[in-house]
Amino acid sequence: MFGFNGKIARINLTDGTVQNYPMTEESYELYLGGKTLAAKIIYDAFKDKVEALSDENILVITTSPLTGSTSPCSSRFNISTISPLTGLLISSNCGGSFGLHLKKAGYDAFIISGKSPEPVVIDIENQVITVKCAKHLWGKNTSEAQELLGAKNRGKLVIGIAGEHLVRYAAVISEERAAGRGGVGAVFGYKNLKGIVASGQFSTEMFDKESFKKHNVKWIKQLKSHPLTGKQLPLYGTAGLVSMMNYRNLLATKNYSSGQFDDFEKISGETLAEDHLVKNKGCVTCPIQCGRQVKAFGKVVKGPELETLGLLGSNLLNNDMESIIRLNHLCDEYGIDTITFGSTIGFAMELSEKGMWDNGLKFGDSTSLEILVEKTSKREGIGNELAEGTKRLSEKYGGKDFAIHVKGLETAAYEPRSAQGMGLGYATSNRGGCHLNGGYLVVLEGLGLNVSGKTTRGKAAYTIMFQDMMEAVSSAGSCLFTTYAMLPSFLVEKPNNIMVRLINGAIPQFGGLVGFIKNKTWLMHFNLASVLPHPYSIRLITGYKMTIGRFLETGERVYNLERIVNIRQGLKGTDDTLPKRLLKELQRSDDSNSVVKLDEMLGTYYKIRGWDANGIPTQKTLKRLKLVKDK
Amino acid sequence: MFEIKFFGWIRNEVGVSKLTMSERTVIETLEEIIKTYPQIDKTHLMNSILFINKKPIIGKKRLTMILKDGDELAILSPVSGG
Questions:
Q1: Tens digits of per-residue pLDDT, A389-401?
Q2: Distance in angstroms (rounded) separating the CA atoms of residues A565 and A380
Q3: What is the chain B residue with the closest CA to A412?
């Protein structure tokens, strides 16, 4: 077997036993790795709905075929489980080096079931798995816990105090990186699992090493020479999006009541770079290096990403960069997701402003936020309510119309009323309000390219194509940022060129064609490595006959599989929606079109997906994707 | 006087965040920037994304638009992230 260890472990924390989990090579080829392999395991694990915080729920931690190779941006790993925040399948992806260490430890994935009677850590070294007492780590923040776990050359991931207190959006932290979304940290906490350490000297066989090396050199060169991955992201990181988002009315502001923040410059990537940047810092094998090390409050710490600048900045009318850096640091230390935390605070501020919940919070006042990170993480005072997230707060205090979440997961910092495709992506994403799982069509709608964000035309087809591609890239084990280099440089760099303007204008018109070829992936049984390098890499690593068509089909397969798991968890088509604020309230009073016109896109989306009118995949679709067998 | 603001890699090339100039057209403004900051990549600047008073201006006609007292010209480069 090429590209994989061919070994998956199942660790039962209730009795400390370890077993091998059987996985056929056919399943490896169909599901590859990462969130897609995890979805298959979770689908097979249960027959009925499972409660997130229960002994039955499992954690599935996966690597991918590209993990452990020298492919660019390939050290990521994935954690999937049933989310305590949404009750649905959540996959949370993380950079750093843990994925690499796990693969070198001799496993492709492991499944954690049951519940330990006392705090433990799992230690994996060269295919030897030991469950160890972690009482001395319980109550420690994430940096201290990682330090106490010892040797620096091992991969580590831990939860913080928030995970121990079952905060519904608790994160798992590895080095300075976070598997942040959906509360995977709370599932760790429920299972009394403080963390995992992994290392080893295993290496997987490669199908065609020489061709892989040559392909890799070209891929890295492409990433380094592209204006987005070679210039913008290294210069300003994801924080560099703040300014453009503000001008494009895309920056979530004051609990999504606006797409522009008057003080955006104070929280921009440019300000972060000019006033605080110490150096860039990226994951292992990453030529982009989008991470930031910044200086603030007398320390050098991880810099905030765009999402954190948006949700803890503009969304709260907080214009204090030092405050955001400090909050970001505290959220990582306590182990909570900055997106959901910021969004929940924004909702609580609006409840307070409207006299619906007397909580003392006020837009523009950041003085109490730092203590709220601690109170939320420990579930003290109002922190106990904030720890439940936006949806549950709205069920208690009202304000569902302006409770900004989808399926229970708070949306990211992209305000979708100026980007119809992003709005559709949020509404249909399997995770809930996730920009990446939603397809990130906003990259075409005013960020990288200049396709109109106002039109709904063609957006259903493109959203599906991008969702499936993101899913496939994630399953390959590659960072989603590598996909930006697919956008032809001349389209990115010359937005005013007459030809580029014509192409931007024509892209929505081709939605019908994109939708038409979606189910005919056999038309794409070839590789075009200069455009989409991932499938060719998989082919060279694993020997599988991977092509662009099969790659996209892998993404589609899992988008449907996740959907089926979610339907089993109780999801309905009517959950594919957005908060009323985004559907009905005009973003700008002078633009009667500045709402998300979901009704114009959702039916087409279901049709192209091969789902029925209720958003359920048809048997024909499931058979085509080999998710059910012909009888 | 009107204000010019730079964002993204254009700002990195110019080396300043803001400038002020007296009334003139967009093309005259860009030419003045190139003259004052010769280190800037002319192609990048001429292809940058422009907003006047937060409204996008695109196409050839953008170059002849007149910037007046109190206006803001924002000059940006494309972005992506996550």
A1: 999 999 999 999 9
A2: 34
A3: B82
